[in-house]
Amino acid sequence: MAARSQYEELARQLSAVGAVKRGLARILPATCPGGSATVLMLLAKYGEMRITRLAELLAVDMSVTSRHVAHAVESGWIERFPDPADKRSRILRLTPAGDELIDDLTRRTTEMFAHHLTDWSDDEVGRLNALLSRLRDSFSCRGSGGCVPGKHSGDCRAGQADDSYTRTPE
């Protein structure tokens, strides 16, 4: 286990990650708030789903999820259609315009990181990705899933979705 001072420094560093998140928010098109972008990214990653599943992945209240979905539907980025298994429910899926926006968001994000991390090696970026993934997995493993800490890369979260695009603060 790391020394207490290491955890204190980690808390300070993670607080400073707000600057990176603000940078990501600045590259979004004016018509696409962060919550909508996150909804689109989750649909791109996992495919069609019910809004209840989307709320779980976002780890936010259903009313917040509904607001993001409504904006994305009004913008033409996603569509709702009846769930064949339960006609009372709706399934969400990306439209071609949503797919185009995902491509644009991916390009913008990649360009932003490439610009700001020009002095980082491929190995350093890879290590950061691996460590951030492990950090996220460690927090997921401490939840109600009852997984074994120390097993990451999906091992400890059998049946749980990867939440690499979740937790938009809105």
**Sheet bearing the most strands, described?**
3 strands, antiparallel
Low-confidence stretches: 148-170
Radius of gyration based on Cα positions: 18 Å
Give the strand order, joined by hyphens, for the main sheet. Answer: 1-3-2
Based on secondary structure, the structural category is mainly alpha
Tell me, what's the shape? globular
Strand content: 5-15%
Distance between the termini: 34 Å
How are helices and strands ordered from N to C? HHHEHHEEHH
**What fraction, in percent, of the residue positions are helical?**
55-70%
Number of strands: 3
Helix count equals 7
Mean pLDDT, all residues: 84
Describe this structure in words.
There is one protein chain. The protein is mostly helical and 170 residues long. 57% of the residues lie in helices and 10% in strands. It contains seven helices and three strands, in the order αααβααββαα. The protein has helices spanning 4-16, 18-26, 34-46, 51-58, 62-74, 96-116, 122-141, and strands at 49-50, 78-83, 86-94. The protein has a three-stranded antiparallel β-sheet with strand order 1-3-2. Helix 3 (34-46) packs across helix 5 (62-74) and helix 3 (34-46) crosses helix 6 (96-116). The two termini are 34 Å apart. 15% of the residues are buried. Residues 148-170 have low confidence and may be disordered.
